[in-house]
Structure formats: C-alpha cells, structure tokens
Amino acid sequence: MAADEDEWVEIKRFGDPIGADMICDFLREHDVRVQLRGNTQATRMTWSQTSDNIRIVVLREDLEKAHEALAAMNQGEARGHPFRDLSAPKDDDEAEEKFVKPRSVIAAAFLAFILPIGAGHFYARHGAAGTILLAGIAGALLASFFGAHYEVTARAWGILVLADAVGAVLAVRRFNARRPMSEGSQRQWAAVAVLVAFALAWATAG
Question: Which of 50, 93, 123, 197 has its CA 20 to 30 A from that of 8?
C-alpha cells in the first residue's frame, strides 16, 4: 500500500538529475525507500542561470537509515571512493614509500661543488635552506668581482659552498629517515651559516 504524502520527508535537493539519480540508487542499495520529486527530465544548460529543483524524499521511518547511508557515502568520497566506503585510507608513510626514492649523500655533496648555488640542499629537498645559501653564495661571488675586499668575499664564497656540501649530507640523511627539518629551522640554519661564513672570512683575512 502506498504511503501517505505526509510520510515522505525531504532530505536533499539537486539541480542536476544525474546526481539525484545517483543518490537515489545509492540509497536504494541501502534499503532506503526513496523517491524523486520535481521535474526530473529537465536538463540544465551551461549558460542557464536557473534550474528546476529536484527533491529527494524518503519515508519518515527510513529517515535515520538514509542519513547513515549519506554519511557513509560522504566519508567514501573524502577517501577518494565516491558512493562507497570499501577501504580505509592508506597510511601517509606507506603511500609516500612508493613514490619517494631515497636521496644519495654522495650526489648531494657532488652537486654542492659542481653547482655552487645551494644545489646540495635543493637536491636534499631542503629548498628553504638552499634558497638562503644561494643568496649568500651569489652575494659573495658578486662582491668578489666588484667589491674592494676580494679575498674576504672569495673566502666567504668557498666557506658557503663547503657549508652547502656538509649540510646537504646531513639533510639527505634526515630526508631518507623521513625527519626533514622544518622550513623555519632550515632558514634559521642557513642564515647562521651565511653570517658565520662572512665572519670567518673576515677574521681570517690577512
């Protein structure tokens, strides 16, 4: 026997008949008695500013079951499985394991000397430190060409390149151990390295 009209409760509205049909099919699969109300044959054009409201209604006695099913559906969408909740999300470390290869400490040190632009830290995925080291190295190099204290700035340049090589080895080890330094700590370390390099270069100048 058909239920009275007042036994049907609206739970969702759609402007898209396809989406409404998908929700209804999902609810029916979960034993929820559901109906569509409104103009379900209307199609919404991309240039249209209005659309017919399609209402999804369920029997009042199935209302709690419908809400539970929709909650499960939303949880499945958040996990990347729309309209189902079949598998738990993978652990972040497990997912990264398939895509992130370990870095090489030898390659990090090699790049630091071959490409003296903070390349060792960039290779070790410590971009914040690499950027500051790059600025310090470039500044020392320019100052050695155009400044009055060639020996001081040239020595600072060499110290910074060495700092990049040594620091990159440690950065690679942290990266491979999945314990990368935070960007704030990277910036702090690199800024100190630049200051110390220029201070040492000045202190050891003849």
Answer: 50
